[in-house]
Design a protein that fits this description.
- Strand 1, helix 1 and strand 2 form a beta-alpha-beta unit.
- The chain is built from 11 helices and 11 strands.
- The chain folds into 2 domains: about 220 residues, Alpha-Beta Complex (Spore Coat Polysaccharide Biosynthesis Protein SpsA, Chain A); about 100 residues, no CATH class.
- It is an alpha/beta fold.
- The strands form 2 sheets. Strands 3-2-1-4-9-6-10-8 form an 8-stranded mixed sheet. Strands 5-11-7 form a 3-stranded mixed sheet.
- The longest helix has 29 residues.
- The radius of gyration is 21 Å and the shape is globular.
Length: about 350
């Protein structure tokens, strides 16, 4: 492609062919500067009606290209790598197939790349309002203090772009300088879930700067069932152990859910036979309950919706599922958590 016609940004969307991907493509077509974007939809679409709608959008907008591939192993990573190879732009974005980009997303996310040492930029993943209550509560839990430092990844902020650590990026909204991603070897197909995080870590290790842009937002539609949210958190916990096993920098706070779960497992049997162990268990649960109530009330005061008091139950589910994922992965490594496997 001649330089004059080269896109400013290639957008890679790995997909399983879910119907929502049509909304993702439509939001990109409506974004500012769409004429300078290249959209690469990577993955087979089994649903005939969805495939027809994607084909219609591609015919309407020639810069949207569908590459129908699938892989037996490492599907998510391999699709990203296929998109990287096909990308024409020097900057390559990776979006999930269940996001809607803000109208100014492309403009915002490209800004930090004016600095040549920037290798990776990420932005917030916001939970939209038009979702069922379980999805809303999942979003509130992830954007609360109960989620620790990662909560900022789910919140829109007014400040400008700022330096971030490798673990502060979010995989559904990340953009690489193409040469940097090639330099680190792309996404590891043997490291799933978590291929985005290990790639981010390797980017930082190579000396490239990582930037978080609080205003380069996408709306990301989370799991809309309690069990779906628990599976998501389980996968996050398992991924954390895989990252540690791969040699990333240890972040002690990420181990707290697993340690809390361990404390419950140790104290619960002892509470039946020892008064003092029962007291320790009561203090443990009581302290957690106070923190849970405080975080929930802060969110309810912000949202002004009484129904959000149900967050009281979602926060423990988040921590217990995450902690269980850590322990299962530690004791029985290598479980297949891909969506194809359910």
């Amino acid at each position: 492609m001649a330089d004059a016609n080269r896109p400013d940004l290639s957008v890679v969307i790995p997909t399983l062919g879910r119907p929502f991907v049509v909304r993702t493509l439509t939001s990109l077509a409506a974004a500012h500067g769409f004429s300078k974007l290249e959209i690469l939809l990577i993955g087979k679409i089994p649903d005939v009606s969805v495939a027809e709608r994607v084909r219609a959008i591609s015919m309407q907008y020639p810069q949207i290209r569908h590459i129908a591939v699938s892989f037996e192993t490492g599907d998510s990573s391999e699709k990203k790598n296929a998109g990287l190879r096909a990308a024409s732009a020097d900057i390559v974005a990776f979006l999930d197939d269940d996001v809607i980009v803000a109208p100014d997303w492309a403009e915002k996310i490209l800004t930090p790349f004016s600095q040549p040492d920037v290798g990776l930029v990420s932005g917030p993943s916001l939970v939209p309002a038009d979702i069922p209550l379980p999805g809303r509560l999942a979003g509130l839990a992830l954007s609360s203090y109960a989620a620790g430092y990662v909560a900022r990844r789910y919140l829109r902020q007014q400040e400008g772009p700022h330096a971030a650590t490798w673990s502060q990026i979010i995989g559904c909204n990340m953009v690489y300088r193409k040469s940097v991603l090639i330099d680190i070897g792309g996404f590891n197909p043997r490291f799933w879930p978590g291929e985005e995080m290990i790639a981010s870590y390797r980017t930082a290790q190579r000396g490239y700067r990582i930037i978080f842009h609080p205003q380069a937002c996408v709306d990301h539609y989370p799991r809309t069932s309690v069990m779906g949210f628990m599976r998501q958190m389980f996968g996050y916990g398992a991924t954390r152990i895989r990252l540690i096993r791969a040699g990333v920098t240890l972040e002690p706070m990420t181990l707290i859910p697993g340690l809390w779960l361990l404390s419950l497992v140790i104290l619960l049997p002892g509470a039946w036979v020892s008064y003092w162990v029962a007291m320790l268990l009561a203090v443990n649960i009581g302290a957690y309950a106070l923190i849970d109530i405080a975080i929930t009330m802060m969110k309810v005061m912000a949202t002004r919706r009484a129904i959000d008091l149900l967050l009281l139950g979602y926060i423990p589910l988040m921590h217990l599922s995450y902690g269980l994922g850590e322990w299962i992965e530690l004791l029985m490594p290598g479980r297949d958590l891909s969506e194809q496997r359910g």
